Amino acid sequence: MAEALTFHYDVDGENFTSAGQASVQVKKNLRQLGFDPETIRRVSIAMYEGEINMVIHAGGGTADVTVDDGCIEIILTDTGPGIANIEQAMQEGFSTAPDNIRTLGFGAGMGLPNMKRYTDYMHIDSVVGEGTTITMKVNY
Amino acid sequence: MKVSELASIEGFGTIALPDGEREISGVYIGDLLSWVMGRAKADDAWITIMSNINIVAVASLADVACIILAEGVQLDAAVTETARSKGVNILSCSMPAYEAAKTFFEKL
Predict the structure, then answer these.
(1) What's the mean pLDDT when you consider all of chain A?
(2) Which of A9, B15, B24, B73 could crosslink A63 through cysteines, CB 3.0-4.6 Å?
(3) CATH number corresponding to A5-139
């Protein structure tokens, strides 16, 4: 790939039912670029979990995806409340999602663990009261 | 087994079938969406009782072969329409999840 391809998305924090639009678009783009189904699945799920987190906790945010030689990078940025204890947040089953989110089938405390599970690299940069930036990389 | 073949088995029905030729390679049962995304495999038939719009995105991104709505759970017309437009197969099923999976296995 001569030049890295970049995609930018705004994630709407108001509309829970449309959450996932950016991930679905990324999936489409990767499919058009001819990526194998498992790579597409890993990127899509990691990004969708991140999107859902931004909608539940941060009132939305932005997603930037870069497709480069051998690596797809996803950067999710929000100006939400931040994560006080990242180690705790990374534990399967730990959740701070409200009850109305749980009735939709989310809030099981699996979002961040899934993002780690499906990516080759994940880094959380978060400041309480300022926001969170999550960088993920999937090698292909 | 193809999704369209499963849909024709007694106890199952079609809600949205935009890609009926798709092959099913296994089954995953679950209602917590992140568990499904973490554990279901591509080409699984996903059995659930969840019926909100997010199941369409989850099925699409997790790349499952179809959703099976167990226990006779009904779907809003808007969700059905979204599934059709996104290429997500959804079957209805009058049986509980265990019976649905058992029936699928017996007909393989």
Answers:
(1) 94
(2) A9
(3) 3.30.565.10
